[in-house]
Amino acid sequence: MSFTRDPAIKNETHDELIDLNPETIDVSAAEAIQETTALHPRDEDVDRYLGFFEVAWDITKTGLPIAFSYTTSISILITLLFINLDENEANRAAAVLIAAVKNFIAVGYSPLFAMSLVISKYLGELKAAQMKDESDEVLKKIKLQIEQVNKAGWIIGASVTPFIITALVFSESILHHVFRQDREVAAAAQEFLQIEALALILFPARMCSDQILVSTKHTIAAMVIGLISLSIGTGVAWWLGRSNAGIPALGLRGIAAGFALETWLTAIGCSLYIALHPDFKDYRFFNFCNLKGVVEQLKNILGIGWSMVVGLFVEMSMDLYLGIIAGLVGVREQSVVSLIMQVDAPVFLFSLAFTQVCAQQVAYYSGLKHYRKASSFGEKGLLVSLLFMLPLPILFSAKSDWLLSAALKDHHEIRYLLSMLIVVFSVAYILDTVRFNALQQLRAKGDVTWPTLTSNSILVLGMALTGALALFTDLGIYGEAAGLAITITTALIVLLGRYATQMTPEEIKKPVAKFTLSGCYGTLFRPQNKRLTEMENLVINDEVGIEAPNFT
C-alpha cells in the first residue's frame, strides 16, 4: 500500500503551505501511521492531570493483588492463631516473642522494598526512550540497569541473612539474657525461630522476585503464587503441629516448618515465573556473571532503603512500646490494646499495598517525564487510600461485641473500654497510613532525608508524650490513646506541608539537593522558587507547561 502526497500540502498546525518536491513522493503505510501518531499522540503518551476515578481504578486493580501477595504478613497472623490453640502455656506466651522477632526480621530486609521504586523509575525511562525511537543501545543500557537492580537486591539480602540466621539460632540466649525474658518461654520461642532460620535461606530470592513482579504489574501472578504457597504451607503447618494422620505432633517446630515451606515455594514459584515468562526474555536477572553497574544500583537502593529501615524500626518499636505502656496501666487494658492491634492488622496490610502502588506510579511517571501524571496520581492516591481504609474502623467500632465475644472471656466488664479505644486507635492508624503513603511518595520522588528524619523524630517524641499521659495523669489508658492520636496527627500535618511543596509537577522535575543544615533552613524558611535563577525556572516550567514567574 502507498500514499501519494500533493506538491503542496496544507499544514493544519500553522495554516500555511509546505513546498515539497513537485514529483510525487511515495510514503509507506508505516511512515504514514507514524506521522499520524506524532500529530495525534495516544492518550497514554500525553502528560496530563489524571482524574480521580482513573487513579482509583489503577490503585484497586493493582493494589488488591499486591495486598494478597503479601503472604508473609498473613502467615504471621495464622501462626499466632495456631500457637494460641496450643495447650502449653509457655508456647502460648512465646507467641508474642515470635511475632515481635518476625516483625523485626522484616526491618532487616526492608531496604529491598526500595527495589520496586528504582525499577519503576527505570521502566518510565525505558518507555520514554521507546516513544522517542531511541537506538537499541540506549534501550539495552536501561534494561541492563533494571537487571542490575535485581542483582543488587540479592547482594543486600545475602549480606544481612547470615546475621539474622545467627540471631535466630541463638535466640534463647538473646531473649533471656539481653531482654530478660523467662527462660522457658525463650526456649519455646527458639524452637520456632530455629526452623524459621531455614526459611531465610531463600527469603532474599522471594523478596527480590516479588519486587520485580509488582513493579512490572505482574501482580496477579504474584498473588496467585503467594496464595497457593500459603495454602500449602498452612496445611503442612497444621498437620505437623497438631498430630494428624498418625504423625507425632511437632508443636512449634511443625508450625514453623509449614511456613518455612511456604517461603521456599513462593521464592521458587516467583523466580520460575520470571525466568520463563516472555515479558522478561530481554532481561538476564539470574546471570550473576555480569555485575557491571551493580555498585550504582546498590547506591540507588540503599539511598532510599536506609529510610525504610529507620521508618519500619520506629513503627515496630511504637507497637511494642504501646503494648508495654498498656501493660503498666493494667492487664485488662493491655489485653484490649493487644486485641485492637490484631484486628487493625488488615489496615496495615492494605495500606502497604496501596502505598506501594502510589509510590511506584510516581517513580514511573517521573522516569517517563510525565510530571503532571506523577503529581496528580500521588495526590489523588492519598485520598483513594484513605477512602479504602475508612470502613474498617467504622465496622470495628459498630461491631465491637463480635471482637469481645470471640477473644475475651470477661467481655461484659470491658465492653465500654474497647468501644471507646478502638475508635481512637483505628482512626490514628488510618491517619498513619496517609502519613506513610505521603512519605513513600516523597521517597519515590527522591526527597528522602528531610521527610524521614522529621516524621520519625515526631513519632519518637510523641511516644514520650503518650507514656507521660498514660502513666502520670489520671487519664490512664485513655491518655495513651490521646497521645497516639496527637502524635500521628502532628506527624501527618508536618509531612503534608512538605508534600504540598514538593509534589507539584515543577518540583518533581527538579533534582533533590543533598541534605545540609543550610539546605534544611532554606527548605523550611525560604520560598522554593526563590532559590532558582530565572533561567532555571524558565527551563523547568517550559517542560511542564507552566508560565514562569518573573523575579526581576
What does this molecule look like?
This protein is mostly helical and 552 residues long. Helix content is 76%, strand content 3%. It contains 23 helices and four strands. The chain has helices at 29-39, 52-69, 71-84, 89-109, 114-131, 136-169, 171-178, 183-199, 203-215, 219-241, 252-276, 294-329, 331-343, 345-368, 371-389, 391-398, 400-407, 411-445, 449-471, 477-502, 505-509, 517-525, 534-544, and strands at residues 2-4, 8-11, 16-19, 26-28. A two-stranded antiparallel sheet has the order 1-4. α3 packs antiparallel against α4, α3 (71-84) packs antiparallel against α11 and α17 packs across α18. The longest helix has 36 residues, at 294-329. The protein is globular. The relative contact order is 0.09. The model is unreliable at 1-27, 32-40 and 514-552 (pLDDT under 50).
Number of helices: 23
* Low-confidence sequence ranges: 1-27, 32-40, 514-552
Mean pLDDT: 81
Computed over alpha carbons, the radius of gyration is: 27 Å
> Main β-sheet: number of strands, strand sense, barrel status?
2 strands, antiparallel
Q: SSE string, helix = H, strand = E?
A: EEEEHHHHHHHHHHHHHHHHHHHHHHH
**How far apart, in Å, are the first and last alpha carbons?**
58 Å
Helix content: over 70%
SSE inventory with pairings:
Layout: E1 2-4, E2 8-11, E3 16-19, E4 26-28, H1 29-39, H2 52-69, H3 71-84, H4 89-109, H5 114-131, H6 136-169, H7 171-178, H8 183-199, H9 203-215, H10 219-241, H11 252-276, H12 294-329, H13 331-343, H14 345-368, H15 371-389, H16 391-398, H17 400-407, H18 411-445, H19 449-471, H20 477-502, H21 505-509, H22 517-525, H23 534-544
Antiparallel strand pairs: 1-4, 2-3
